[in-house]
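Narrative of activities, Objective 1.

The group set out to show that a structural description can be obtained from nothing but a protein's sequence at a throughput compatible with the screening campaign. Below is one input-output pair from the validation batch, recorded exactly as produced.
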Amino acid sequence: MLSKTLFKKALKAAKKHALPIAVGSGVVGAGIMSTASASDDCIPPPEVNWSHKGAFSSFDAASMRRGYEVYRQVCSTCHAMNFLCYRNLVGFTHTKEHAEMLAGSIEVKDGPNDEGEMFDRPGKLFDRFPAPYPNEEAARAANGGAYPPDLSMISKARVGGEDYVFALLTGYKEPPAGVVMRPGLHYNPYFSGGAISMEQPLKEFGQVEWQDGTPPTVTQMAKDVSTFLAWASEPETDERKKAGVKWMTALFVAAGVAGYWKRFKWMPIKTRRIEYKSY
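Output recorded for this entry:
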């Protein structure tokens, strides 16, 4: 009996003060969501006006080619791209001949041969990009316990995509006053917690050599490798956009034909005049 009385009183109070209760619940809910967010301990990356973001835009092949060189000469010393093969570069960043030359520059362990032994051979187009370490334990041992993530899907695996990658590569700074970094850590406000074990990979002008004559500034190198990693996360993006344009065009044409046919078919019925005569 007492519980029913308390329930009725609570119901009357809720009806009388509905707006304050709703506002209070919203504030509490927002507070819970904000405290549960894992990205509150870092700065969100600024948005960059990427040339491939539009519905009718495509990836810049020259930028992707330069970005691959940044990955090959800098990033590949620690990070793997296990989901990308040399054949994926053909038609996007390199010609078939150039991709075969890049693949042939590596040694791949293959086998067994007729004697049951493993052997080394030059790489081929179907081979994956070489990993810098044989396993995770070796990678952690070489990097002070930190495991360098695979970069094949990094743009899809991080909130912000290529914006985050670009901000991270260009966001290394001196720690602010009162912040003491532990040995082996570096200050980066775009990384969760602000302390990252990866040393600044892009440091100086001319760190990477490009054949097209583009000045290899730190910002340019970060922009190009971010574009390459965004493409690597979803190489079929341009094909999807082309297919989308074709399908939308076909649907608009079909809608126009259907509308005209419907109007032509129903026009005599909708425009007819019906008269009733009394006898």
